[in-house]
Amino acid sequence: MDLQALFDTAMKASSASYSPYSKFRVGAALLCADGSVVTGTNVENRSFGLTICAERSALVSAVSQGKTQFVAIAIACPDAAYPVSPCGACRQVLSEFADQDMPVVFGCRADTVVHSTMGALFPFDALHELGHKE
Ligand code: THU
């Protein structure tokens, strides 16, 4: 699957977003090493700090299915006027499983997709020496 198709999948996933407080839908699509795609959405909570972002939602879903190797992630935020990149917490959590050269693409529409990488979004990972990578 190419990155634009992965973005389209993230956009479709955003329709399942549970975001009654922010009204800001986000979808994420994680391309796994086995060729499968696992999606996630943001899931908000009335105790606002317990909200989980779409990126972490997709990641924990994939890992829960035994998938821990990833090729790329796409994030779609149709309610934004500009491409929204992963938050700091998601960058940290994604870095547990993503190599620095893994593509991260994000956009609010299919024609505004920004192409980045894990390393560009999360450089100088101070904890990489603690990482458990085989
Ligand atoms: N959100 C995500 O799901 N991913 C991002 O990259 C940015 C923010 C969610 C969290 C919250 O439900 C809403 O967007 C507004 O911050």
Can you walk through the features of this model?
- With 134 residues, the protein is α+β, with helices and mostly antiparallel strands.
- The chain has one domain (3-130): Cytidine Deaminase, domain 2 (3-Layer(aba) Sandwich), CATH 3.40.140.
- The protein contains four helices and five strands.
- Strands 2-1-3-4-5 form a five-stranded mixed β-sheet.
- The protein is globular.
- The two termini are 25 Å apart.
- Bound molecules: tetrahydrodeoxyuridine.
- Residues 19, 22, 24, 26, 42, 44, 51, 53-55, 75, 84, 86-87, 90 line the site of tetrahydrodeoxyuridine.
Primary descriptors:
134 residues, alpha+beta, Cytidine Deaminase, domain 2, five-stranded mixed β-sheet, globular, binds tetrahydrodeoxyuridine
Q: What is the CA-CA span between the terminal residues? A: 25 Å
Q: Tell me the CATH topology.
A: Cytidine Deaminase, domain 2
The level-1 CATH class: Alpha Beta
User: Tally of extended strands?
Assistant: 5
The helix-and-strand class reads alpha+beta
Give the ordered list of helices and strands: HEEHEHEEH
**Proportion of helical residues:** 25-40%
Largest sheet: 5 strands, mixed
Q: What bound compounds does this protein have?
A: tetrahydrodeoxyuridine
Give the number of helices: 4
Contiguous low-pLDDT stretches (5 residues minimum) are none
The CATH architecture would be 3-Layer(aba) Sandwich
What's the domain count? Answer: 1
Give the integer mean of the pLDDT values: 95
Rg from alpha-carbon coordinates: 14 Å
CATH level 4 superfamily: Cytidine Deaminase, domain 2
